[in-house]
Amino acid sequence: MSEYLFIIPLFIAIAAGWFLGRWQATGKKPAQQSLQQEYFQGLDYLLSENTDKAIESFIRALEINSSTIPAHIALAKLFRKKGDVEQAIQIHQSLLARSDLSRHDFLRIQMALARDYFAVGLLDRAENLLLEIKAQRPGPDIHQKVMSLLIRLYEKEQEWQQALDLANQLMKSELQGIEVELSHYCCELAEGLIQQQRYRHATEKLRMSLTYDKSAVRASLLLADIAMKQQDWKAAIKEFKRVVSQDPVFLSETIKRLKQCYREINQLPEFERLMKQWLIKTPSTTIMLAVADCIFERDGAYPAGAFITDQLKHRPSIKGFNQLIDLYIAHASKGANESLMVLRGLTGQLQLSKPVYNCQRCGFSGKSLHWQCPSCQSWGTVKPIQGLEGE
Long-range contacts: 108-117, Cβ < 8 Å, 24+? Predict the structure, then answer.
């Protein structure tokens, strides 16, 4: 009888434990469902680019379960995107203090913190953290992200050679997407060497630039400048001609210097023939005016004016119209001259008020050619404006 009395409480305890477990499980299930709902709702807002509502959803998700690492990471990324980098840094630093992180999560969070430091301008901290991650030998995915961010960091510090040295450690497949940037780093170094009159070393850097990006117009223009400084006119002509196959939009940047090269070797008729070929293949106002100038030097003002008039019918431009007025002012009667001078003053102001270059990516415009856009920081996206107000 005493044995039965001992077994009965044991069965009661087991039953109570079973019912308690069932109750806890059912009690946690709605909370888990709520967590998932908030998390996926946050992702939905994120995809819809509704940053504010996405932040609210991720904060509610963390209120339900503060140990959820993906919600922390997503929230920090949103704070950084909004410009509240200090909040992002705090979240990432608090995550790194946890002892239950896997190695993969630890590296991911370190990488995110390095991006925070980079975004806020703490470049030394970002560099030290990235080098620390690199020393831990992460997987290929994180390693490539570390190297890419380090290269961008050295670019920001204008440490062009360090960026190139780092790129040399990457495989060719890992360079995809940053070839244009690397090409311009070589050009930046070359420009410094040209100022020091170290032309041989500058040429080496520019040849390297073309290995990264065959369409690097900047490298060809700099090589032509070096050749002109050394009075190697034929080599300069060859480099200027390379621009045709790289990006014909930039031919307008070559015309003045190209004419000087042909003049130096007494081959101006060849220059005129080349300009006429280019005008057919890649028409622009600067090339058209170069042909008109050749006609003027050979035949006089009226044939040159007739040529410009005919060209403007097919390709009107403010710059071409102004050149035509200048020709008529120089050879018109006194009465007509005064009227033309008034008109030329108005059209001249119009031309001066218009930008000459614009960025193909962000729309930034200005009167100077920037190889790196001052607005969006993209390399090689600023080009001469085409059309009525440009080329």
Answer: 108/73, 108/142, 109/73, 111/142, 111/145, 111/146, 111/149, 112/73, 112/76, 112/77, 112/88, 113/89, 114/146, 114/149, 115/80, 115/149, 116/76, 116/80, 116/85, 116/88, 116/89, 116/92, 117/89
pLDDT, tens only, 287-325:
999 999 999 999 998 899 999 999 999 899 888 888 888
C-alpha–C-alpha distance, residues 154 and 142, integer Å = 18
How far does Cα 90 stand from its chain's mean position? Answer: 29
Confidence of residue 185 (pLDDT cuts 50, 70, 90): very high
Number of H helices, E strands in the chain: 18, 3
Among residues 146, 370, 341, the alpha carbon closest in space to that of 253 is found at 370
Distances in Å between the Cα of 249 and the Cα atoms of 122, 220, 384, 388 are 39, 14, 7, 15
Number of Cβ within a 10 Å radius of residue 76: 27
Per-position DSSP letters for 328-387, written without gaps between them: HHHHS-HHHHHHHHHHHHHHHHHHHHS-SEEETTT--EESS--SB-TTT--BS-EEE--S
Q: How far is CA 97 from the centre of its chain?
A: 35
Q: Among 131-140, 222-231, 298-307, name the most confident range.
A: 222-231
Those residues whose C-beta lies under 8 Å from the C-beta of residue 94, and which sit 6 or more positions away, are 72
Give the contacts of 368 (CB within 8 A, at least 6 positions apart).
356, 357
CA angle, corner 334, sides to 332 and 340, nearest 5?
Answer: 60
The secondary structure of residue 308, as a DSSP letter, is H
Q: Which residues pair with 359 in a beta bridge?
A: 382
Contact between 179 and 210 under an 8 Å Cβ cutoff? The reply is: no
Token pair 């190695």 in the structure block, residue: 103
Using an 8 Å Cβ cutoff, are 250 and 371 in contact?
Answer: no
Phi and psi, residue 385, nearest 5°: -70, 140
Residue with tokens 């890419």: 148
**What does the alpha-carbon distance between residue 141 and residue 144 come to, in Å, rounded to a whole number?**
5
- How far is C-alpha 373 from the chain's CA centre? 7
- Give residue for tokens 């929230």: 75
pTM of the model: 0.77
User: In the 8-state DSSP scheme, what is residue 250?
Assistant: G
Return the structure tokens found at 239.
């480099």
- Give the burial class of 182: count Cβ atoms within 10 A of its Cβ; 0-12 exposed, 13-18 middle, 19 or more buried: buried
